[in-house]
TrEMBL record:
The keyword Membrane applies. It is a multi-pass membrane protein. Its main location: membrane. It is found in: Membrane. Keywords: Membrane, Transmembrane, Transmembrane helix. GO terms for cellular component: membrane. It comes from Micromonospora phaseoli. The keyword Transmembrane applies. Pfam families: DoxX_2. The chain crosses the membrane at residues 6-26, 47-67, 73-94, 101-120. InterPro entries: DoxX. This is DoxX-like family protein.
């Protein structure tokens, strides 16, 4: 179970890192041209960059606290926050008629819920 939780957290961290880098450093106009990025046209550049920074922090928060053993409770807290972020992403994609991306967000949500459940519960770092 511990290995599965590490793999899930690692996958989410990679997704968060990729999304965070693109939202933070790629211009909004360029993001809008990419398939699945149409949603950025409905939000301000500041909002998109804020999401990107939150995703970069999530990438760090899903892995680093456990690796360095400093406040490892941040791993499930970060995963729980990722669940909330994915709810918002799913709503946005569904409103804009992109069920495929909403489904992808649902998969990320399920992975994050698994990490939050596992790290708060049976495979807690504090146990």
């Amino acid at each position: 179970m511990n290995l599965a939780l590490w793999i899930a957290a690692g996958l989410l961290a990679v997704v968060a890192l990729a999304g965070g880098i693109s939202k933070t450093f790629v211009p909004r106009e360029r993001l809008r041209e990419i398939r699945g990025g149409e949603w950025v046209g409905h939000f301000s550049g500041g909002f998109v960059k804020t999401l990107g920074i939150l995703e970069l922090l999530a990438a760090v928060g899903l892995i680093l606290p456990a690796v360095v053993d400093v406040a490892p409770v941040l791993v499930p807290v970060t995963a729980a926050c990722w669940v909330l972020l994915m709810v918002g992403a799913m709503i946005t994609h569904l409103r804009l008629g992109s069920p495929r991306f909403a489904t992808l967000n649902a998969i990320y949500l399920a992975l994050a819920a698994f990490v939050a459940w596992g790290r708060f519960g049976p495979e807690s770092f504090t146990a």
